[in-house]
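New to this. Help decode both lines:
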Amino acid sequence: MEMRVDFHTHIIPEDIPDFTKRYGGGRWPVLEKTCSCGANIMVSGKVFREVTDQVWSPEKRIEDMDKEGVDLQVLSPIPVTFSYWAEPNAAEEMAHIQNDFIAETVKQYPSRFIGLGTVPLQDVDVSIREMERCMFQLGLKGIEIGTNVNGKNLDDPSFSGFFEMAEKWNVPLFVHPWETLGRERMPRHNFMYTVGMPSETALAAASLINGAVMEKYPTLKVCFAHGGGSFPYILPRLDQGWNVWPHIRKIQKPPSFYAQKFYFDSLNYDPVNLSYLVERFGYEKIVMGSDYPFLLREIPPGKVIDDTLGLTEEQKAAMLGGNALSFLNMNIKEALQK
């Protein structure tokens, strides 16, 4: 049976507390309603993003899913709420609120939603504690993490314990760009979203490989947002660097070997780009993702897969749903019985 599973969607509680009043500091995201069906996410007193009730209302989401032919959405937090910059216990409280909300939404509509959690990666011990709660108490199916933590790339030795436990517990990780490199050079044209995020994702993927994280934890499950950003297209250059600079190698094989372990969502908008992903990594490693409910999302979800020529119906079905369930250690029967 074919299912359409939108792996890449974001959600936030409608009544998220104002942590600025609770803990001080201006960087906490605050949801300020503008009307019954809209709000602004405010950061440091400025509008970070305008949103609609699609971002907090499961009923509105289901209405859109039915209209656009989506069976299941995988819910993950909005990256601005990661709060890696904050004191760990305060960030853990923010994570608790979001993870509880996502788990409750899944519990309320088990046949329509699957949940991913968030953890305060600035403190690995606290992160492991919250990851354990997400997976074994709340019933979430994975963890969304950012591409860096306060400027530290993901191969920083301080994160080893987190990746070790994620591998041990078979926790799928969804890597989403945030706090993009070079953002001080991108104040105009919304380049942070169109140029910065793909570049940031490429740096995160390359760091996990060249920093030997994927070699050290070979069964770690990792999926990258936005089709991996620019990473798939610079992979030959990473291989060339590995070839010509043997004295700085930390990995036994070229980067392209370890890249075969990665998953990617399909959100690159163009059948030519999707065909390249399939050719380089295999259709089994592509999961459909739309970035619902934001402006850059794909409408309808899965359009780029539907429009890509040369794919078999079996391959399309896998990318539209089966691969996402497999990545999340689920199967269609389990998803239907949730």
Summary: The chain has one domain: 5-10+59-337. The domain at 5-10+59-337 is CATH 3.20.20.140 (TIM Barrel). The chain has 13 helices and 13 strands.
